[in-house]
Amino acid sequence: QVQLVESGGGLVPAGGSLRLSCVASGRTFRGNAMGWFRQAPGKEREFVGANRGTGSTYYTDSVKGRFTIFRDNSKNTVYLQMNSLKPEDTAVYYCAAGSSWYGDYDNWGQGTQVIVSS
């Protein structure tokens, strides 16, 4: 059974940093896309960024230059490094594993809460 477990969330002041981790078990996702999404209170889940199976990364405009996604395939883990955090980054962050190199996300973690205080 595929399982994704996020960790690393918490409370951080504006301008601070956090690193989220997502460990996948049950199968390897080497060569598949791994993405990060977030859902703020009262809002729909939105895409944050992804690391494709090719190794390329891309991000939504609001986090470009502040967030970085990288992965360690030997550990079946993907990370989201978040710097210069803003209160509007407050959300539950979810990692997702794709069934293809470019996306098709079909496995989701339970989420980890990030709160950025002003």
Structure description:
By secondary structure, this protein is mostly beta strands. It is built from no helices and eleven strands. The chain has strands at residues 3-7, 10-13, 18-25, 34-39, 46-51, 57-59, 67-72, 77-82, 91-98, 105-108, 112-117. Strands 2, 4, 5, 6, 9, 10 and 11 form a seven-stranded mixed β-sheet that branches. A four-stranded antiparallel β-sheet has the order 1-3-8-7, with no helix packed on it. A hairpin with a 4-residue loop joins β7 and β8. The radius of gyration is 13 Å and the shape is globular. The model has no long low-confidence stretch (mean pLDDT 95).
Features:
single chain; 4-stranded antiparallel sheet; 7-stranded mixed sheet; mainly beta; 118 residues
Short description:
The chain is mainly beta and 118 residues long. It contains no helices and eleven strands.
Percent helix, as a range, is under 10%
Order of helices and strands: EEEEEEEEEEE
> Averaged pLDDT, please?
95
Separate helix tally: 0
Major sheet: size, sense and barrel closure? 7 strands, mixed
* Basic shape: globular
The overall strand count is 11
First and last CA, distance: 40 Å
